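ok so for the tutorial part 2 we go from a plain amino acid sequence to predicted structure tokens. step 1 is just haveing the sequence, like this:
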Amino acid sequence: MNKAGTQRIETQRLILRRFRVEDAENMYHNWASDPEVTRFLTWPEHASVEVTKSLLSLWVSRYESGDYFNWAMEYKETGEVIGNISVVKLIEEIAAADMGYCMGKAYWGQGLMPEALEAVMNYLFDVVGLNRVAASHDVNNPKSGRVMDKAGMKQEGILRAAGKNNLGICDVVMHSAIRADRENRSELHIELQDTEWPFEYTDHDRMIVRAICFDDEGLFYFVRAEREDDFGKATLIETAGGGVEPGEDPESAIRRELKEELGAEVEIVCKIGVVSDYYNLIHRHNLNNYYLCRIQSLGDKNLTQDEIEEFHLSTLKLTGGEAAAEYDRRRETALGRLIANRELPVLRRAQEILRESRGQVR
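step 2 — the prediction. this is what the tokens look like for a chain of 362 residues:
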């Protein structure tokens, strides 16, 4: 499991972000003080905005933990916080999470909660690496079940007298989605924010190509770098790749980069997807296009002397499990955490593709 914590997620109509204590007025007036909203919930309506502020202070204090997932739902049209969606139970042993959510009744019936739940589910599968995401509702609250269905969950069954909410003991309807339900989907598309350095502004985009490279033994190839620059001193693991040059198409760029950094001639199997992320320290937005490539032959690398001296680049040949462990080990630095958040979801998706095709990745 990747302990990426609560990161900003943007949907068509919503910004899902960390709560701030300043959100107390919106939270109190839009849903926390409304008994109709809390009717099927496990906590009573708030008696005052001070109760809401106290709760938000507790939530905010927990965000530094990478295993705390709790989003405010900010409505783009008005800028108001209109609801809450969170992981209410995390079971690391089986990489599973149970979800909870609520929203002001003025916004019910507009498809906003399914929009938020689907986006959070994608984040938990693709970025955090969970295998199961579940939710449940009182059998007398079928509207909540329709939210789960619209977000892609499947009903599992009814647990009799298994829950308790503000109406008392109730029958509980279980819904879930698991990773296997999603393996036939199309390319990944992940949006990440820089949670290590404060955002000031972005003044340029960079189109980047990267590859998960594998050989016929099912081993993966990565670049190890040692650097000391504006980002600090760090030893890193990263996929091979780099910027697309003017007038160059992405597939030509990835072949060039793999020849330069790994000395590899490759077959491009497929495009895995795109990860959008930011380096706030240098005001840059990256569009990382990831490919799955089979190594056909290895020869001499074509690195410049500056690259050799500045980054001390070397090649790592690892199993998928070894690579994931190495990414986690490099989370000791801020840059290592940003890279791991970006690359681990892509590695997992590459492993899924290869398992589907031949079941030979170790």
